[in-house]
Amino acid sequence: MIIRLKDIHKSYGLDSSKVEVLKGIDLDIERGEYVAIMGPSGSGKSTLMNIIGCLDQPTSGSYSINDQDVSIMDRKELARIRNREIGFVFQQFNLMPRSDAMENVMLPALYAGMPSHERKVRATELLERVGLQDQIHNRPNQLSGGQQQRVAIARALMNRPSILLADEPTGALDTKTGEEVLSLFEELNQEGLTLIVITHDQEVGNRAHRLVRVRDGCLEDGVELAKVS
Amino acid sequence: MPWFENLRVAASGLWANRLRSGLTMLGLIIGVSAVILVVSLGIGLQRYLKDQFKTWGTNVVSVLEQQGQRTFRPLTMADVEALRNQVNTAQSVAPVLSQGNARVAWQNYNTTGTIQGVTPEVAVMLSIPIVQGRFLTQRELEERARVVVLGNELAKEIFKNEDPIGKQLLISSQQVVSAKDVGSQASKNSNKARPKLIGSSQLLTVIGVTKEGAFEAHLSLSRGLLIPLTVAHELLIPSDSPFGRKVSNILLEAKEGETVEQVTFQTTNVMRQRHQITTQDDFVTFNLQEQLNIYNNIAKGMTVFLGVVAAISLLVGGINIMNIMLVSVKERTREIGLRKALGASEEVILTQFVIEALFIAVVGGLIGIGIGVGLVTLVATFTPLKAEVTPFAMILAVGVSGAIGLFFGVFPARQAANLDPITALRTE
Question: DSSP 3-state assignment of A195?
């Protein structure tokens, strides 16, 4: 089990003004799964994503990644987990505007302390893997939206994470480039990568192997979708 | 994360905002160059004063008569001999006989000058600058040669553009005693009683011209007429006393390594013994060391004052860095959030921003040193101030700017490090 969420609660504010966003979430995700988390805005899916991504910590409950109990970790350890275990893909790509594709992809490895030469070799491989071997030294403003998202995916894969966590990965892309990104996800998943995609787009959700719906801070029963092969 | 990666990230961040980074540095550049300039000029000023006083004779003690004592005895050649023999901290002893103004005539031109009988050693002792010809020699002293060394102002007045060397001046000793001429006051009363003139006028040949001293404490040079002491004794009136041939003052130069205080002490002892002083001295000693100390203290005070003003500009420069770093943190909130999401720990973010601030401070400091050194070199080249950048000033400037970068950089860096990644990522 790569991800194990047990009775996760998350609330903001104190006492009378307390708002409970997550009301006891249980979710297990196995290695190599492709899971979509869907839900309307205000359902708590963003909070759930932040907790899965170790950007936030639950008020109560336990969470472990790769059998490491994340809910008891301090901020420094959480930074390490984000760096090693999780690859983030954002809706707005979030690339460093002044750095080229190569430098963007290498960034997580910089924080992991990977030697410079090794960093370059791996970043080059990954950029080739996502089909950007000709845009290695382009800056984000010289790349199309789809290309930027592929740089972001290469960056997310840099430290060989356990999970790739994508937040509305196609939200800022047109249908065609969105499709390219989704098929890249499928390829990566077939290579064994665990994928979690947060989306409100039913079509994107349908591409996953398992669909989890969040509503009012609770999970609805998961739907096993037909595996696309 | 290795430090050079941090440095690279900082440098590229600063380069991307180069106008702003440059302007931020500017405050520090001005502060550092001002500190360097002020400290170096202060040191240069003190050195200049010391050099000037050295040529004016800070290592010279002057003995003058002081009248009013019942037991008053004038200064005489016998005193000079005694001081020569007994003050072993003195390198040389030079008697001076000055007689106030003398009338000087050449062809149809008449004027006045300060006539002073001297011995050759006074030239070395007071570093008297000779601009033309030469100074008196020992032989001329012994042979009572009728020669004179003129002050440049007097020489220019009398001879205009003509070469004064070899010209013969008609010099008449006068009864007029200048009030400034302390040394000759002793003979004032007796002068009136015995208005004696040995030869009403004398022809003296000009052998040299001296330049005006910057501070004429011991001898009048610019309008002076320096003649052999022996000739002065013959011409000036009255130079005899019951105690021997009189002199107006006696100059003693301290040996290398001896202080004027030691010379003053020995001189006072010898003089008291010779003049059989029991209560009050009938002579005074005088030196320029005290004046030098006063000027030095003024120079030091000015340096400290201006240094503090310059240091305030450094402080303002530091606050400027903090200000800009705070703006930078605000602007780059999203970038910081992203870096954190990608696994940068708080220490890494803190280090990155501190390094950026330090980078601005140190680069600004180095440029400031460059400009400061340039300005100091300009000053040293075009003014008499021998200003020099001391390693102390440089270490101080770099140390202070580095400390400022660190001090004023930590606060904004902390703010960056403590940003919540979720909020930061959501910021547009």
Answer: strand
Half-sphere exposure for A20 (CA within 13 Å, toward CB):
13
The pLDDT profile of chain B, 428 residues, written as one tens digit per residue, is 667 777 887 888 788 888 988 998 998 898 889 888 888 888 888 888 877 776 667 788 889 888 876 778 888 998 999 999 999 999 999 999 887 778 888 888 888 888 899 999 988 888 888 888 999 999 999 999 999 999 988 888 898 888 999 999 988 865 433 333 434 444 444 444 333 444 457 889 999 998 876 556 677 888 888 999 988 888 765 666 777 888 888 999 988 888 888 999 999 999 998 888 878 888 888 888 777 888 888 888 888 888 888 888 888 888 888 888 888 888 888 889 999 999 999 998 898 888 888 888 888 988 999 999 999 888 888 888 877 887 877 887 778 888 888 888 899 999 889 888 888 888 76
Q: Write out chain A residues lying below 8 Å of B2, CB-based.
A: 113
* Contact between A76 and B346 using a beta-carbon 8 Å cutoff: yes
CA dist., res. B101 & res. B96, Å (int): 15
* Nearest chain A Cα distance for residue B349, angstroms: 10
Q: Residue B338: list chain A partners with CB under 8 A.
A: 94, 96
Which residues of A fall within a CB distance of 8 Å from B342?
Answer: 82-83, 88, 107-108, 111, 155
Q: Is B423 on the interface with A (CB under 8 A)?
A: no
Q: Could you give the CA distance from residue B81 to residue A17 in angstroms, rounded to a whole number?
A: 106
CB contacts of B425 in chain A (<8 Å) are 55, 90, 94
pTM of the model: 0.68
Q: Which residue has the tokens 């006989």?
A: B97
Location of structure tokens 């359902």? A43
CB pairs under 8 A between A and B: 58
Tell me the C-alpha to C-alpha distance, in Å, between residue B274 and each of A111, B88, B89, B92, B310.
Answer: 90, 16, 18, 19, 56
Nearest CA in chain B to A110: B1
Smallest CA–CA distance from A51 into chain B, residue? B422
Distance CA A58, CA A55 (A): 10
